[in-house]
Amino acid sequence: MSPNNPDHIQMPLRIFDLPVEMINKIFEELDTFSRFNLQKVSKTFRIIIDRLKPSFKTLDFYINTDDSINLIFDKFPVVTYRREGNSCSVVYENHKKSIIGGDYIEIALGDLGRALKNPKLQLERLGLFSDTEYSNFLKNCLNSQLHIKKVVLKTHKIDEIPRILTIFQHGTLEYIEFRTEPKTRKNLLKIVDLEQMKRARNLKFLELGVKIRVSNGNRFKIYKKEFDVEDIVRLRDFLLTTAHFKSCRLTARQFNFTFPQIERILRSDKCLIFTINRTQLIIEKV
């Protein structure tokens, strides 16, 4: 009670009694994971945080084979979600929270979804990595057109890649990197015929050791240490079955085939012409 007015009861100050500018300033000082936790407290907190500019520019999401998931903002800090019997734990820096009966996948995907659904989000890079059957859960979090410059994907479910890529805004996505090789022409065509792929400036298939650079809309360049007959056959088939690309230039330290071999492969169809020297091979549609 106030000493000057014994009948007056002084109520404690609540955070929403503060000016809006002060509340925003407090929330802006929080790190990304603390903001996640506040979003779970109330709808009002969630609205306030969604109005703030995200505090991170890169995000990597790893679904691991040891019943754990890592969520990484700007390369650090790492949030680790782990199955522990019928429960799970969330570890962030020196803090660990055990959740009785919690599903570590559901909790991790929920945090990923909250991060990606911020209307002000503009990422320099997003990495999605999965070596397990859970990779199909990723798309459930990616349900809006995302403004991202670079995306890195690793999944053994190649059919999921086209569905995931369509979520990104074409025209803003400049660099696409695949950590798993599309092993068939059909899978590769599903990917490269997407508008997001056609407008990207750089493509990279890491497990092939290949960097593919797209230029001027319908040409692409491939850099690789070595090319063999099988590589050329795949490229021939790809060029003949895609309407988007008209030519490609291969640059390598070594070509593991003879001129008669390459002539037989590329001139078996009169739709292609080629020129070759010691380090470059150019294939064009006629």
From TrEMBL:
<dbReference type="GO" id="GO:0045087">
    <property type="term" value="P:innate immune response"/>
</dbReference>
<dbReference type="InterPro" id="IPR036047">
    <property type="entry name" value="F-box-like_dom_sf"/>
</dbReference>
<dbReference type="Pfam" id="PF00646">
    <property type="entry name" value="F-box"/>
</dbReference>
<feature type="domain" description="F-box">
    <location>
        <begin position="12"/>
        <end position="59"/>
    </location>
</feature>
<protein>
    <recommendedName>
        <fullName>F-box domain-containing protein</fullName>
    </recommendedName>
</protein>
<dbReference type="InterPro" id="IPR002900">
    <property type="entry name" value="DUF38/FTH_CAE_spp"/>
</dbReference>
<dbReference type="InterPro" id="IPR001810">
    <property type="entry name" value="F-box_dom"/>
</dbReference>
<dbReference type="Pfam" id="PF01827">
    <property type="entry name" value="FTH"/>
</dbReference>
<dbReference type="InterPro" id="IPR040161">
    <property type="entry name" value="FB224"/>
</dbReference>
